[in-house]
Design brief:
CATH architecture: 3-Layer(aba) Sandwich
Largest sheet: 6 strands, mixed
Strand order of the largest sheet: 1-8-7-6-3-4
Helix content: 25-40%
């Protein structure tokens, strides 16, 4: 099914049809279009993470200007090298390619704007044996910080809506 999806991505790219990739989709689009994806040397990325915005696509325009955003994460693989012609939109020390675009027809994010904290907590708890206690505990602790530092899923949803409305 992955090769079929890769063929679909190439067909959509040829037609410059709008595509959005989230997590595995972010990785598969990058890989299919000539980027590089592999397991992160930093290990699992789980819980709440903050990303720095390094470039702003037209659909990301906001007042005041957005310089960072926070999302729920759950991944071990990540994009290591962007595909040719892609522009990096967001980064962090542990996930160098957190968001990118290709021209104005591809928008991808490594995080999970569709997750809610309760789902993330359940996934972390269920995956504790694979994650290890230190990673799982740190991820669960990051969820406790949400009242003081909320997620920006609504912002990413607005970006996504504007991306598809153009």
């Amino acid at each position: 099914w992955i090769s079929d999806l890769s063929e679909f991505i190439l067909s959509a790219e040829k037609d410059r049809a709008p595509q959005m990739g989230i997590c595995f989709g972010h990785q598969l689009i990058a890989s299919t279009l000539g980027g590089e994806v592999a397991k992160s040397s930093a290990g699992w990325g789980v819980g709440v993470k903050t990303f720095d915005v390094v470039a702003t696509a037209p659909w990301m325009q906001a007042e005041p200007e957005i310089t960072e955003f926070r999302m729920l994460m759950s991944h071990q693989d990540q994009v290591l090298r962007l595909p040719p012609g892609a522009e990096l939109l967001a980064t962090s020390h542990y996930c160098p390619v957190a968001a990118y675009r290709v021209a104005d027809h591809v928008f991808c994010v490594q995080g999970h704007p569709e997750f809610v904290p309760e789902l993330s907590e359940r996934l972390i708890t269920a995956r504790r044996p694979a994650l290890g206690d230190q990673v799982a505990d740190a991820a669960l602790l990051s969820l406790q910080d949400l009242p003081q530092h909320p997620l920006n899923h609504q912002l990413v949803a607005e970006w996504t809506a504007r991306f598809f409305q153009r």
